[in-house]
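Could you please consider the sequence and fold appended to this message?
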Amino acid sequence: MTPKLVAGLEPPYYTAVFTSVRPDAPEGYAETSARMQELVREIPGLLGYESARTPGGIGITVGYFRDLEALDAWRLHAEHQAAKAHGRKHWYDSYSVHIGKVERSYGYERE
């Protein structure tokens, strides 16, 4: 199966870029990640997300949100906040978050 990228979004919209360093398979991470994927899909204004991880433990997830209200709804979601706190204590060696406003977007897909 070919991975699908988030494409065809009409700007402006917002991105949340989460980059992290963690061990490859910390206990409980996969279950929490799956739960976060379920929850974020329920946020009105979520346009999609993409994730990737290197074998060395560097990961990046980009979430696309229609507006800052949608992004804040995700940031302030109680289960998401609890997962972030648990991650800081148990999983992540480091992480960074970057929020941006997208004013231009384009892509390409081979037919």
